[in-house]
Write a structure and sequence with these properties.
The protein is an alpha+beta fold and 494 residues long. It has helices at 7-13, 27-38, 69-80, 91-97, 110-118, 165-175, 207-218, 229-236, 254-262, 283-286, 291-294, 297-326, 348-367, 374-391, 397-409, 416-436, 438-453, 472-479, 487-493, and strands at residues 46-53, 56-63, 104-107, 122-126, 132-135, 181-188, 194-201, 249-251, 266-270, 276-279. Strand 4 (122-126) and strand 5 form a beta hairpin. It is elongated, with a radius of gyration of 29 Å.
C-alpha cells in the first residue's frame, strides 16, 4: 500500500489486481502484471526486453530518457554472457556480489517496483526469483550548475542549484565533508511521488524541530506538488497566510545553503526545483546575502547596514512624502524644495497607486518579453513613463522621482517575497495616510511593526529573534559582521 492512499485511490493509480501484493517467482505472471500496470505497448517511453541470462528467462524494464545507454549496453553484454553456473541461487546474492554496478536494490511489492521504475531505475526480473533487481543506471536531463541570475555575488563561488535533486545534494556535500551531515530522502504526492531531501547536521540541528518537519512531510496527503516548493511550504505551514512577510527563505546558492546547515538550520530540497528551502528563519536571515561574508568585516557590516536602511526607506519614503504634501506647513524653509512645485491635476495618493501598479505591469512585461525585444521595451517604457507622463499632466515630476527610487532600491533585497511584503505594507500605509492624515500614517507604521513582531516561524519562534529575553547577547551579531573564529577559539569561548 502507498502511504496516505486508500484502496480506492490506489485502484485509480494502479488499475490492476496486483494492488498491495508482491511479485511472484513466475516471470510470465510478473511480465503480465507489469504490462497491465504500465501499458508499455501504449506508452512509447516504457521499454522492456526479454533476454536469456545463464539459461534463465529474464526481462528488463526501463524508461527511455532516464537510462544511460552506454552503461546499459555494458550491463546487457555482461548478463547475456553469463553461464548457468554463474547465477546465484537467490536475488540477495545477485544484488550483493553479482551485478557490476554501483547501486542495486531489491524490490518485491509492486508499489516499490513501479515507483522505482518511474523514478529512473532499471528493473530486472528473473524467472524463479521472487524479488527483482532495481539497478540505478538513471540519468536526468539537467542544465549546467551556473551562477543563479537572482543571487549573483561579487565574490565567492559561481555555481548554483539546478532542477535535479541529486546534483543539489552533491553541491552541498562537496562543501561539508562531515560524517555528521545527514540527507534524508522522502516522497510526497500520491500521483507525482516527488522526491524531497531534508539536509541537516546531526550534532547541530534542533532535533525537536527536525522531528516536527519530518512528521509534517510524512503526513502530507496531496495528489502532487504542482508548484514544487510553494506547494510544500503551504502544506508545511498550517497557520494563517494573511501576513505577507515570508515564512521561508529560498536560496539558489550552494554556499549559502551550506552556511545555514552549519548554523544548525534545516535545508529542504524538492526535486525539479532549482532552489533550497531554509527553515527556520527570522527577519534578519531574510536580509543577509553572501557578499556580507565574502568581504572583510567592515565592508560586510556596511553592506548589511546599507541594505537594512534602504529597505526601511523604500517603505517610508512615499508615505512620508504624501504626509508632507498634506501638511506643507511642517516643511522647514531649507527643506521646502521637496514640495511639489507644479499644479497637481491628479491626487498625489492616486498617482502613487497608479505608479505602483504600473511598475508591476512593467515587471510582468519584462518577464514575458523575448530577449531580442527587451531593449525596445525598455526605451518605450522610459519615454512613456518618464517625460511624456509628466508633460501630459498625469504625474508630477517629484512623484516620479520618489517612485523611481523606490522601484530601484527595492532590488537591494535579494529575497523576492520580502520585497513584495514591503510593497504591500507601503501601499497600506499610503492608503491610511491619504484617508486619515497623520493618524493614518501612525496606524500604518504601527501595523507594519505589529506584522513583523507577531509573525511566527515554522518552529513557532518569534520572527524578530533574537529580540527578547535571552537573545540580546547575540543581537549585535545580526547587525555587525564579525570576524571568523578558529575552531579552538570557539570551543574555548563555550
Amino acid at each position: 500500500m502507498v502511504i496516505g492512499m486508500n484502496e480506492k485511490d490506489q485502484e485509480i493509480l494502479y488499475p490492476t489486481k496486483q494492488i498491495g501484493k508482491e511479485m511472484t517467482a513466475d516471470l510470465k505472471e510478473n511480465l503480465a502484471a507489469m504490462k497491465e500496470i504500465l501499458s508499455p505497448d501504449i506508452s512509447y517511453d516504457i521499454v522492456y526486453r526479454v533476454i536469456q541470462i545463464g539459461g534463465r528467462d529474464a526481462c528488463l524494464f526501463f524508461v527511455d530518457g532516464f537510462c544511460k545507454d552506454e552503461m546499459m549496453q555494458k550491463i546487457l553484454q555482461y548478463l547475456i554472457g553469463l553461464k548457468p553456473e554463474d547465477i546465484p541461487t537467490d536475488a540477495h546474492g545477485m544484488s550483493k556480489g553479482f551485478m557490476p554496478t554501483v547501486e542495486v536494490d531489491l524490490g518485491q511489492t509492486w508499489d516499490e517496483i513501479v515507483t522505482g521504475l518511474l523514478s529512473g531505475q532499471t528493473v530486472l526480473f528473473l524467472d524463479g526469483f521472487s524479488k527483482c533487481l532495481l539497478i540505478d543506471s538513471r540519468t536526468y536531463p539537467a542544465r549546467s550548475v551556473s551562477e543563479p541570475e537572482k543571487e549573483k555575488g561579487l565574490r565567492g563561488s559561481k555555481d548554483g542549484f539546478v532542477e535535479t535533486i541529486v546534483f543539489n545534494t552533491a553541491l552541498v556535500r562537496r562543501r561539508i565533508r562531515s560524517p555528521k551531515l545527514r540527507m534524508e530522502m522522502m516522497r510526497v504526492g500520491e500521483t507525482s511521488k516527488t522526491d524531497i531531501a531534508v539536509c541537516y547536521m546531526e550534532d547541530r540541528v534542533d532535533h525537536k524541530l527536525l522531528c516536527q518537519i519530518r512528521t509534517r512531510i510524512q503526513n502530507i496527503h496531496v495528489d502532487a506538488l504542482t508548484m514544487n516548493q510553494e506547494s510544500l511550504a503551504e502544506c508545511l505551514y498550517q497557520g494563517k497566510w494573511f501576513n505577507p512577510f515570508p515564512k521561508f527563505k529560498y536560496t539558489e546558492r550552494p554556499d549559502t545553503a551550506a552556511a545555514h546547515i552549519l548554523e544548525g538550520n534545516i535545508i529542504v530540497f524538492v526535486d525539479n526545483s532549482p532552489s533550497a528551502m531554509v527553515l527556520p528563519v527570522s527577519i534578519f536571515d531574510m536580509t543577509e546575502e553572501a557578499d556580507d561574508y565574502y568581504f572583510p568585516p567592515v565592508t560586510g557590516t556596511y553592506l548589511r547596514f546599507s541594505r537594512t536602511i534602504i529597505g526601511i526607506i523604500t517603505y517610508l519614503l512615499t508615505p512620508t512624502f504624501l504626509l508632507l504634501t498634506m501638511y506643507p506647513e511642517w516643511l522647514p524653509k531649507w527643506f521646502s524644495f521637496v514640495a511639489i512645485a507644479d499644479d497637481v491635476n491628479v491626487p498625489v495618493l492616486l498617482q502613487f497607486l497608479i505608479l505602483e501598479l504600473s511598475l508591476d505591469g512593467l515587471k510582468l512585461a519584462a518577464v514575458n518579453t523575448p530577449n531580442m525585444l527587451s531593449t525596445p521595451l525598455s526605451v518605450t517604457a522610459g519615454i512613456v513613463l518618464g517625460e511624456f507622463a509628466v508633460k501630459s499632466g498625469w504625474f508630477n515630476s517629484e512623484v516620479m522621482l520618489y517612485m523611481a527610487f523606490v522601484a530601484i532600491a527595492n532590488y537591494t533585497q535579494s529575497n523576492y517575497e520580502l520585497g513584495y511584503a514591503l510593497k504591500f505594507m507601503r501601499i497600506i500605509t499610503l492608503v491610511l495616510t491619504g484617508i486619515a492624515g497623520v493618524w493614518g500614517y501612525a496606524a500604518g507604521v504601527l501595523f507594519f511593526i505589529i506584522s513583523i513582531a507577531c509573525n511566527r516561524t515554522i518552529a513557532g519562534r518569534s520572527y524578530i529573534n533574537p529580540f527578547g529575553p535571552g537573545g540580546m547577547g547575540t543581537l549585535w551579531k545580526r547587525f555587525i559582521r564579525v570576524r571568523q573564529e578558529a575552531a579552538g577559539n570557539r570551543q574555548a569561548s563555550k
